[in-house]
Amino acid sequence: MIIDLYGLKINDMLGIVLMYLVGREYYKLAILNQKNAWLYAIVGVVSYYVGGFLGGILVVLLYHFISEESVEEMSELKLEMMAIPFGMLSCYLFYRFLKFTWSKRYAKQDEDILDELL
Prior knowledge:
Helix content is 81%, strand content 3%. By secondary structure, it is mostly helical. The protein has one domain (9-109). It has a two-stranded antiparallel sheet. Helix 1 packs across helix 2 (37-66), helix 1 runs parallel beside helix 3 and helix 2 (37-66) crosses helix 3.
């Protein structure tokens, strides 16, 4: 049974909260690195949904080959809950990639400044 509150289901509310949390972290990272904050907040949310979509496909394929039940018999909520970790993993990995890439660029600039002083 899915809880329905003012027309929103619990999985919709969870998606809204996750979009806010992911967008906020990407926004802060972009501000710290003088990048377009809103663009990277949206890109962070998109990375979550792309990872969830690809994870959902993987879950369906594994479920099809492992389980004796048909994929059509699987509840939608169950599939969405199984795809959430994949979305979070892709979001985290992309966040770490951006953080590493941007810190590497600034570290290189700092080396140049130090060489100019000597």
